[in-house]
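hey can u check if this looks right to u? its 120 residues, i copy pasted from the old doc so theres a chance i mangled smth
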Amino acid sequence: MRELGPDVPLHFTAFHPDYKMTDIEHTPASTLQRARRIALAEGLHYVYTGNVHDREGGTTFCPGCRKPVIVRDWYEILSHALTPEGRCKHCLTPVPGRYDAFAGQWGRRRVPVHVNVTAA
């Protein structure tokens, strides 16, 4: 925190056994949530959990009023409370980052993939 400051995002991401590393256990969500609580207690503002279902760990909170400004659930944005200038709509505290006006839906999407297979 001394070198980068409290506004640099920190992500704790779960390991899932796959391919050639199936002999190692997955990371429990509770481990990531504990790490997140410690980082927040140390003064970091933007600490997230990933690769586990944890709505609170995916939510961005205002560093001023602590209200949620971007609520995420997996890949869906459920609510958005930032101005186009990047300020909390509740208290107008600046939230570091680059922002445009939020419109539309963000979330899970199926993207079609077409594979052409030719016979050899």
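The chain has a mean pLDDT of 88.
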